[in-house]
Write a structure and sequence with these properties.
By secondary structure, this protein is an alpha+beta fold. The chain is 31% helix and 23% strand. A hairpin with a 4-residue loop joins β6 and β7. The protein is rod-shaped.
Amino acid sequence: MATRYCIRCGTGTEDARLSFCPRCGTAYAGQRPEPAPRPADAAADDSAYIRVGPTRLPRLLPVALLAVLAAAGTAVGVTLANRDDGTGPPPSTLASFSSPAVEDPGTEAVPTEPEPELPTETEEAQDTETAASVVESYYADLNAGDFRAAWDLGGSNIATEQTYDEWVSGFSTTRSITVDATDDGFDEVDVYITSTLTDGTTERYQGTYTVTDGEITAAEIQKAS
């Protein structure tokens, strides 16, 4: 009798009654293959699995997935509840970060120039005081009756042959004095004076004053014609 060989594992057999390879269960040529019987332990193992296409999955996997989803839903619900009742952490507790300021290396600081010092009131008075203004101040003191100030401003230099009291008495009949003073930018001051007396009459004078260091030092005054 001819020996038949398995086309899969190459096992040979002379038993013509066999339709399948006694080693691997492959059908011999011309025979319709039938599924080989599974061992009992394999059948028992398959009961713990389900087949999804070519993949076998444990039967308990869906249950485990449902349990995980249920736990996650519970956690989300607790979190939302905590946020609603105000017990959850406020958003302000989250750490915030800001990018540090980066200086532009190409920008150089521009030095600021110091502000000029403003002159004090005394300096302004010295700068704006002119020879003409000294003469005007002299007559302002006379009109205000402040004879001592007018005496110190230059009256003592003018009334060289009079005492202070004699000089003051010379204005006893004078009601007011107006003066028009102009200078040439130096010490000489040209004046035109109008004196109103207590009886209402007026007298006019003209001449020059010499001013040195803010004080009248000389005068050449005569009655105008």
